[in-house]
Amino acid sequence: MPQEDVLSIKREKLAALQQEGRDPFAITRYDVTHHAQDIKDRFETLEGRTVRVAGRMMFKRKMGKASFCNCQDRSGKIQVYVARDSVGEAAYDDFKKFMDVGDIIGVEGEVFRTQAGEISVHAAKLVLLTKSLRPLPEKYHGLTDTDIRYRHRYVDLIMNEEVKETFLKRSRIIKEIRDFLEARDFVEVETPMLVHNAGGAAARPFETHYNSLDEDVKLRISLELYLKRLIVGGMERVYEIGRVFRNEGVDTRHNPEFTLMELYQAYTDYHGMMELTEAMFRRLAETICGTTLVTYGENVIDFGNPFERLTMTEAVKKYSGVDFDEIPDTEAAMKIADEKGVQYEAFHSKGHILNLFFEEFVEDKLIQPTFVMDHPIEISPLTKKNPDKPGYVERFELFVNGWEMCNAYSELNDPIDQRERFAAQDAQAELGDEDATDHTDEDFLNALEIGMPPTGGIGYGIDRLVMLLTNSPAIRDVIAFPTLKSLS
Predict the structure, then answer these.
(1) What pTM, to 2 d.p., does this model score?
(2) What are the backbone dihedrals phi and psi of residue 25, each rounded to the nearest 5 degrees, phi first?
(3) Which of 105, 130, 289, 384 is least enclosed by beta carbons within 10 angstroms?
């Protein structure tokens, strides 16, 4: 039947009900006593008892004096047996005439098992709670077009149970993280999204305008600088889970707005952050996946073994054969980059080029959990220097499945050194580096001058973590409403 005819018929049915004073949209509540899976799990207890369930009708088979449908709620589907002798002739006629697949219904009746062995509800009363005015996708082909799935996530959730399961797991993952950190005495806090200085990461911010203040502001790209202010204030262990915004590209692992978690712990360093991270990832694997062996695509990732630890120079030497400890200066680094075909900018220094070698030759090789430690100072403006390795800082990134999963520092708490680092970033920006966003933040420097204790800090991309633990191929599969280009 043409789409236009289906839409017309649905509206005609609604109009007929409304003319009879039976507008389904006028119903304000329906008291649910049980859910579909609950009935199946507790059948021995509930058999013969009256229950009230509500949800979307996903199937309907009309027969003579008795028909079948099902009811899909948040927990799954339950079959409903609708007999004329049980609901009454008028109600049975209404069921056949007015209730369609896609409608939201309320069902009251006894729990029983059919002759075919399926646990069901024998309806005594049926209520049309919402009339669906658009058809659902065809049953056997479902909703498979990825662009439509992302744009119409509400239909995607109705038609594809594995999609709903992914988002339920996402919620569980965040809850487990909160429970894990609460057990370690961390306090959850909230910090501003609209800021004058979008610092704490190498990224381009979105810009907007405060009408009442007549000031331009930016959407945050990180949570770092305000959380450190709370450490200065004596809170000692804080974290935030929140949206950040980076005016950058979209691909399978990047979305311009995404969920970041950052935490800061006084009186520890990046080694303490490694211990915390390894323990948290292992717990998440065990609680969410039921095992420390997590399958992603063709890879089986082992979170049960101690994570490998490599410095960035060790990693680059291992996978590219180039030993940056033997490269004396930027000129020599540029020369070896030319030989290896690694592209760089004129303003890049030796440390930048080391990082480019890492991105080119190493990242995609790190399938099993690996801490990559001791990054060059040029790309780490908020990190303490490594006292044993000039030109490098106490920073690590965790890589799993070839992805960066988190970024951590021994936090820089020297306000004099921090001012010099900000000035270096400002100079980089003037040379054309659009990602050099950590411009001098006087209020943050003032906080450091008040005094911040030695601190370890870390940031985790929650969306990428959910991808890994749900075996989802793209970041859009784990963000309920991902960024999409407008159709207009």
Answers:
(1) 0.92
(2) -75, -10
(3) 130
